[in-house]
Amino acid sequence: MASASRAQFSSRMGFILAAAGSAVGLGNIWGFPTQAASNGGGAFLLVYILMVVVLAYPLLVAELTIGRYGQANPIRSLQAILPDAAKNIGSVLAMVGLIAASCILSFYAILAGWLVGFFVSPLLVMLGMDNVAVWLETFSVGRNLLLMAAFMLATIYVVKNGVAEGIERWSSRLMPVLVLLFVILIGYIFTQEGASDGLHLFLVPDFSQIDASLIHSAMGQAFFSLSLGVCTMMVYGSYLKKEANLPKTAAQVAMIDTGIAIVAGLLVLPAMFVAQKNGVEIYNESGQLASSGTLVFDVLPATFETMGNAGYVVSVIFFALMVIAALTSSISLLEVPVAAAVEELGQTRKVASWIIGLAISVLSVLIIFNFGSLFDLIVVAATEYAQPILGLVFALLVGWVWHRDKVLAELREGNPHIAQGLFWRVWPAYVRIVCPLLMLYVFFAK
């Protein structure tokens, strides 16, 4: 167990905003609306909310509980819940999680760098620096290196300042700004012709669209959206005070994360149909989304361009949203290996943040110089294999290996009467049997 002097979030709200910030990322603001637009709109929304409840939330409670019980980095936390003969297995699982988080950050920083470029570009156009603006929006090695480095420096800056002064402080500032910018942008988009069509698609479910493919997509999106399987929530849980009610806190994090995803849908889908009204192709002749992978870089900027001078302001606000969401997630990804380096290797937080941040940046550089062969490979390895497999293993450890009395004792720290409630009657068996079966479905039903 960690010492009493170990860093903690200063308040429950600070933790909720930081954990929600970790969960709220490009998966919410880019991935969720794209998935909704590709999978029946309202039907996908309905199934997604259901999957957050039946899969993501129970697993979130499990990861937070492991972290708070261990009061340490994932290596020690996983060792703490395993019998003596299996301690090394915990170390191996944690190391896989640290590597997966680092790999995700390596490509995430490249994508986030592009977003920084699209955020700065309209400002440069307004200043008459059109050539520089075009360069920032055009794929090139130089552009990718510069913007990745800028984003990684911001990430390192936050993490090196610690839990309360860095992660909590900046998450508590950025999350309210994120919501405010959403409200402003949605208010504007709703005044544009065509927005009501996107709103109808998103909010009115067509139940005929629900099939096995949609259910699988919604289940995967719900799992990945909450940063499960790569130890981020385990690390954040380790900084949580013992008096916090874990099931309640996890529910609040899941609700904020899901709420932001829904708000993103309320923005992006109407904006898509505004673009369609202005002559931008959204769906191809077969009814498929024309540019799902590059939606935020193709369709939405084209939408903003049709709005005249106001489009520059709208573009700046939208990409500011994207950068904020990316940053709140990236700091949690960097925190995973940094926490381990501080406690296992005795490094200071500042040194660990710089060394690990620079090492991940080197991996990003390798990806940039070998983009065609490495980018998709690392994305698939980290998010489609490592993340769901680790999520499955964590569920099995909590359900089958960690002694039930110790799990209950940890949950009682923040809720002394939890054993008499519905949660404890359902959750242990649910995370033991149902969650692993759902996870296997996510992994194999592709």
Question: How would you sum up this structure, described in words?
Answer:
The protein contains 18 helices and no strands. With 446 residues, it is mainly α. It has a single domain, classed as Amino acid/polyamine transporter I (Up-down Bundle). It has helices at 12-23, 26-38, 42-70, 74-81, 87-126, 130-137, 141-160, 163-189, 195-203, 212-225, 232-238, 246-277, 295-305, 309-345, 349-369, 371-401, 404-412, 422-444.
Q: Can you give me a brief rundown of this structure?
A:
With 446 residues, the chain is an all-alpha fold.
The CATH architecture category equals: Up-down Bundle
Structure classification: mainly alpha
Please tally the helical runs, counting DSSP H or I stretches of 4 or more residues.
18
SSE ordering: HHHHHHHHHHHHHHHHHH
Helical percentage: over 70%
| CATH class designation | Mainly Alpha
Distance between the termini: 40 Å
Biggest sheet overview: none
Protein name: Transporter
Pfam family, one: SNF
Transmembrane segments: 41-61, 92-120, 140-159, 171-190, 222-240, 252-275, 310-334, 354-379, 385-402, 422-444
Membrane topology: Multi-pass membrane protein
What is the element layout, followed by pairings?
Layout: H1 12-23, H2 26-38, H3 42-70, H4 74-81, H5 87-126, H6 130-137, H7 141-160, H8 163-189, H9 195-203, H10 212-225, H11 232-238, H12 246-277, H13 295-305, H14 309-345, H15 349-369, H16 371-401, H17 404-412, H18 422-444
Helix pairs in contact: 1-8, 1-12, 1-14, 2-10, 2-12, 3-4, 3-9, 3-10, 3-11, 3-12, 3-16, 3-18, 4-5, 5-6, 5-7, 5-14, 5-15, 5-16, 7-8, 7-14, 7-15, 8-12, 8-14, 9-12, 10-18, 11-14, 12-13, 13-14, 14-15, 15-16, 16-18
